[in-house]
What does this fold into?
Amino acid sequence: MAKVNPAGDSLLYSTYLGGTMATFGNPFSVFFVDDIGFGIAVDAAGKVYVTGQTDSADFPTKGGTAFVPKDWFYAAFVTKFDMSLSGADSLVYSTLYGGGDTIGSGIAVDSTENVYITGATPSPSLPPPVVSPKANPGGGDADCFLAKLSSSASTVVYSTYLGGTSNEYCGGVALDPAGNVYVAGITNSSDFPISTLAFLPPPTSNTPALFAAKFDPGGRFFTPPSSAASAAPPWGAPGPL
It folds into this structure.
């Protein structure tokens, strides 16, 4: 992870994050996992949050709580840095999340420093509490997930799934001032859950399509007001909620 000045011509901070990889019994994971960072966010105070995936048994952890089963090959990580400090002191917390073989790809932080991560998982057992999943967990090779962690990363506020019977991957997450959460990704599930206001229908089988989805502050799939939901989408009949 690195920070440069606004002009991009001076390095202000740079650090490594990771362990020694491939130590969980998967003889092939060294070739495709290791420790990889995918998402980064910054809060109002300048603290930095990163997420990605690791298969290192000695991945640096501090504070927080590790929310993973003991038999995982790789897991998502969530790490917070304070770049005003140096060395080990700059690591505020670092924790692991997943139900086994989980990838963290997007991260966001709210005004009270709660953290939201999204990505993909094949696991039917994300850390509880799991609220209103819009997927059959374990369908296809992977489903999208959305999780909210407390400001200290010591508690999972909620976890949820999004997907159909084929494959999904979420790549980004964002928040609005009201606390609603938005994720974006790709699906090839013909039964991907869509709202009555969907701009386009779900893809035909095995045809990848981009999607955007909205969740309310409690992690439930956003349902439009009844007056709006009564309007037919531009492509025809409304899809399932």
In short: Residues 23-31, 226-241 have pLDDT under 50 and may be disordered. The two ends are 40 Å apart (CA to CA). The domain at 2-174 is CATH 2.40.10.500 (Thrombin, subunit H).
